[in-house]
Amino acid sequence: MASFRKRGSNRWQAQVRRKGYPPQSKTFVTRAAAVQWVRSIEYEMDQGLFVSRNEAETTTVAELLNRYLQEFTIQKRGAGPEAYRVRALLRHPLAKRFIATIRAVDIARYRDERLQEVTPGSVRRDLTILSQLFEVSRKEWGIYVHNPVRDIKIPAERGARNRRLQDAKDGSDSEETRLFDGCRKCRNPYLLPIVRLALETAMRQGELVGMHWQHIDLKRRTIFLPQTKNGDSRTVPLSTDAVAVLTCGSRKFMQPWAGSNDGAREQPGSR
Fold first, then answer.
1. Does the pTM of the predicted model rise above 0.70?
2. What backbone torsions phi and psi does residue 172 show, to the nearest 5 degrees?
3. Sign, CA torsion 109/114/116/121
4. pLDDT tens by residue, 159-198
5. End-to-end C-alpha distance for the chain, whole angstroms
6. Residue 143 burial by CB count (10 A; 0-12/13-18/19+): exposed, middle or buried?
7. What confidence tens digit (pLDDT) does each residue in 101-160 have?
8. What is the DSSP code string of 142-191?
9. Cα separations (Å) of 255 from 131, 155, 211?
10. What phi and psi, each to the nearest 5 degrees, are found at residue 179?
């Protein structure tokens, strides 16, 4: 059974009540639009195709992002970087919208805005999170919603990076010199040694900040990484400069990333 109620001067509320289905209601600007909506709902019920959209129409993207962050992101190996991206999405105006109102054109506009600020690779990772959010909402949380990310063109990934620090030219300082000078001016005293270590070992950011004393062997000049990005372990050889970074004020340098107090007290290469 359907009913219509005028609310104010230009609002119409439509209600559909049928045995075996949860009550459905929605407000429209015109009575004609309300009638059309009622007909579509009743048709879906008649055909056995009806799925309630109430939750999708009353739940914001921000609410789902926060739930996704707590239930899915924290379980991933790359939880830190993904959490950073999720929190950035929470600050975007899209997060304030109800998830049922998000269309492909909204996602495409977000994509184009982001392409003006970051690389296509970063935009791809942002869109991957949004796509997973819509899929999880539908499959895991029972929220009837279409995935609009599937309807837009995803930016193509650029080719492999082959960037190298340039040597000095025309009497100017080399890029490495300028990079180190910039690190020295930073208030964080650990930036310079970690940048030096990154250049010497080609280790990833997560690998650098996840180092433990028990995995560093200065006698053999190696760092053992129990788990890398692809899930495998590997051993990284240390150059003379890398060893110098770790031994020059090593306790102070490594203290912030020690995995435990025991690891912080253990001398590198003591085994």
1. no
2. -85, 165
3. negative
4. 666 777 777 777 677 888 888 888 888 888 888 888 888 8
5. 78
6. buried
7. 999 999 999 999 999 998 898 999 999 999 999 999 988 988 888 899 999 999 887 766
8. ------GGGGSPPPPPPPPP---PPPP-TTPPPHHHHHHHHHHHSS-TTH
9. 39, 40, 10
10. -65, -45
Residue-wise pLDDT for 49-89, tens only, equals 666 677 788 889 999 999 999 999 988 877 888 899 999 99
Two tokens at 144?
């009837």
Q: Is 107 left (phi over 0), alpha (psi -120 to 50) or beta?
A: alpha
- Report helix, strand or coil for 14: strand
For residue 91 the two structure tokens come to 């600050």
Which pLDDT score is estimated for 270?
44
- Return the pLDDT at 49: 62
Average pLDDT over residues 27-32: 86
Looking at the DSSP assignment, which residues form a beta bridge with residue 16? 2, 24
Structural element, H or E, at residue 87:
helix 79-90
Q: Are strands 12-16 and 234-237 parallel, antiparallel or unpaired?
A: unpaired
Cα–Cα distance for residue pair 34/32, rounded to 1 Å: 5
- The 3-state secondary structure of 214-263 reads HHEECCCCEEEECCCCCCCCEEEECCHHHHHHHHCCHHHHHHHHCCCHHH
Task: State the residue for tokens 């009550």.
Answer: 23
Token reading at 268: 């590198």
